[in-house]
């Protein structure tokens, strides 16, 4: 899995951009996208083992990051993620 930290710059500078990029790379490197030629959105809905559990954990982290942007209690603590 690729981690975007340090000196690397992403084109997207939004709050959850790093988690989104990691989720995207995880899905694109999975067997579901590579061998079965499915879309990443279709791969997230499958539970047949062709997508690693790490991708599902990143999906949950991305959801929590996006939800923390809307939650007023979490605004002062910053977005969850890395």
Structure description:
The chain has helices at residues 17-28, 31-34, 40-44, 53-70. With 82 residues, it is mainly alpha-helical. It has one domain (16-73). It is elongated and about 45 Å long. The mean pLDDT is 81.
Layout of strands and helices, then pairs:
Layout: H1 17-28, H2 31-34, H3 40-44, H4 53-70
Helix pairs in contact: 1-4
Brief description of this entry?
The chain is built from four helices and no strands. The chain is mainly alpha-helical. The protein has one domain.
Radius of gyration, taken over Cα atoms and rounded to an integer in Å: 14 Å
Write down the overall mean pLDDT: 81
Largest sheet report: none
Helix % is: 40-55%
Beta-sheet strand percentage? under 5%
Uncertain stretches: none
User: What is the approximate shape?
Assistant: elongated
Give the helix/strand class: mainly alpha
- In whole angstroms, how far apart are the ends? 14 Å
Total domains, how many? 1
* Count of alpha and pi helical runs: 4
Number-wise, the strands total 0
List the helices and strands in order. HHHH
Descriptive terms for the model:
82 residues, mainly alpha, 4 helices, 48% helix, 0% strand, elongated
